[in-house]
Amino acid sequence: MLEACVLATILCGFFGIILKKNLLMKIVSMDVMSTGVIAFFVLIASQGGLFTPIISNVQNIAYADPVPQAVILTAIVIGFSIQALMLVGVMKLARDNPTLESDEIEKNNTP
To answer: What is the average per-residue pLDDT within 45-58?
Structure first.
């Protein structure tokens, strides 16, 4: 059931990027899709019965792999920076255009 909710989140973000015409809504949809992908990776990487190697002092047990955690943290930081960069781009577009609708911006900037 949890997998279906995560995949639905990814699909909602994907269809939002494709179907929405407002640039801010496209950025929000991309953030929703990114959050869904991160949740999907966390869901895949989570396994029961694993221990963290720092806290546990018991020998000969199964340790959790820290590499997926580092990849997810890196994905979160990169997603945040991309979102901030896109918002700056939209702010610059808003100075020249009265609307943030992608169709109107294309009409105004086509020779």
So the answer is: 68
